[in-house]
Amino acid sequence: MYTIFVEYRILPEKREAYFNYMSTIPAQISERGGVGYRHLEGVEQSNTFVEAFEVEQLETYQAIRSWRLSDTELPTFISGGAAKLHMWAFAPKE
């Protein structure tokens, strides 16, 4: 199982539109094989968000990553645009 993190900071003036956009993301992640989706906001850094979920296969992560990074709407909410959208996969270590 891989844990996936998506991190970015949104523009404060786009906050409401961002939340409207994000309302569909959990279902879309699930449809693509992601489980346990969480949407978190930084306590000490308002407007900084992390999305977290898990996938069983690295290929599933790569497909979701490709989909998210090719999205043209999400970067319109991000401070710095698409260049500031970060996405990583982590594998458990014993």
From TrEMBL:
Domain of life, source organism:
Bacteria
Return the protein name: DUF1330 domain-containing protein
Q: Which organism is it from?
A: Brevibacillus fluminis
